[in-house]
Specification:
The chain has 317 residues and is an alpha/beta fold. The radius of gyration is 20 Å and the shape is globular. The protein contains 12 helices and 7 strands. The protein has helices at 12-19, 36-43, 59-69, 103-106, 133-139, 142-152, 158-168, 177-188, 203-213, 216-229, 244-257, 289-294; strands spanning 24-29, 47-53, 74-77, 92-98, 231-241, 277-279, 302-308. Helix content is 37%, strand content 14%.
């Protein structure tokens, strides 16, 4: 069905059903990654075209392979999806965001995303810019470390981790993934029994640091309204999330567009709400047991989707 890019696209059939149900479409893929979703969308029919974004320079050769397989039907921009507002193209019939880190990034030790392999503590989605995780850990203020580990990583023992990181400065341990793992593990020990007991001790801290240095939530909040504005009336936006904070941003944005309360504390009177879209997923779709078994990395995936009904009003986003 799709070109073998070496990357298993998550919840592929659900995405195809949402974005190319008739085998036609003009799709904006904000997260090209390994190219799995893009190639499958292009393979859905000869009248499908895709405009794709990805800030990772290592995605460039993968995009060239897909372009060669589907001549003149893929346009690729080596940019962060937060820059979608600058895109001249518009009137897309579908928009896709597949958030998080790709398998290519996780499985390349030199990128520093994985706590299971030795490599430099980098973690940048775009290594051409910004500061690496190692630099952040050595130089960040304690409140910045706290935000990354407590708020973004949601590490319950964040105080111990922050203290250990500060104490490890200047030792060289923070420059490599395994050195950082050692610092974290010595600080918090094994997980206590509970829903997170199966997590590696470094999971949440690595996640929070990665999200902080890449400003992932900031970029997502900028990209959602920008991409939605480029969606044609009747078009569908689908977002795959892997983290509760990402999912919360998407859920609230979609509910706001649909004229619904964004959360349980939202007391805005219904007559003051404006519905410019309709939800296609009242509850997020999750992968089947079969998919999780075949691709364990899909286990925390959630898909939310919305259909545009009219042009955005100034106060809708």
């Amino acid at each position: 069905m799709y070109m073998n890019t070496g990357h298993a696209p998550v919840m592929l059939q659900e995405i195809l059903k949402l974005l190319t149900p008739e085998g036609v479409g003009y799709i904006l893929d904000g997260t090209f990654g390994g190219g799995g979703h893009t190639s499958a969308l292009l393979a859905a029919g000869p009248d499908v075209r895709v405009v794709a974004f990805d800030a990772d320079p290592e995605a460039i050769p993968r995009s060239e392979e897909v372009q060669a397989a589907f001549p003149e039907r893929l346009s690729f921009y080596s940019q962060n999806f937060s820059e979608i507002e600058q895109l001249e193209e518009a009137n897309f019939t579908g928009v896709l965001f597949d958030l998080g880190v790709s398998s290519f990034q996780l499985d390349t030790p030199e990128r520093g995303f994985s706590f299971r392999a030795e490599g430099p503590a980098d973690m940048r989605l775009n290594p051409r810019e910004g500061r690496s995780a190692a630099v952040f850990l050595e130089r960040a203020r304690e409140d910045e470390l706290t935000h990354a580990i407590r708020d973004l990583g949601e590490e319950p023992q964040w105080r111990k981790v922050v203290t250990a990181i500060v104490q490890a400065r200047g030792t060289g341990k923070l420059s490599t993934t395994q050195g950082l793992v050692e610092v974290i593990t010595e600080a918090i020990g094994p997980r206590i029994a509970g829903r997170r007991s199966k997590l590696h001790p470094a999971t949440l801290t690595f996640q929070g640091i990665r999200m902080e240095i890449n400003r992932e939530l900031d970029h997502l909040e900028a990209a959602l309204p920008a991409a939605y504005a480029k969606l044609a009336i009747g078009g569908v936006m689908a977002v795959i999330t892997f983290h509760s904070l990402e999912d919360r941003i998407v859920k609230r944005f979609f509910k706001r567009l649909a004229g619904r309360p964004e959360h349980k504390w939202d007391a805005t009177p219904q007559e003051e709400r404006t519905a410019v879209a309709t939800l296609l997923t009242n509850r997020p779709w999750v992968p089947s047991d079969e998919e999780v078994k075949a691709n364990p990395r899909s286990r925390s995936a959630k898909v939310r989707a919305i259909r545009k009904l009219t042009e955005i009003t100034p106060d809708a986003c």
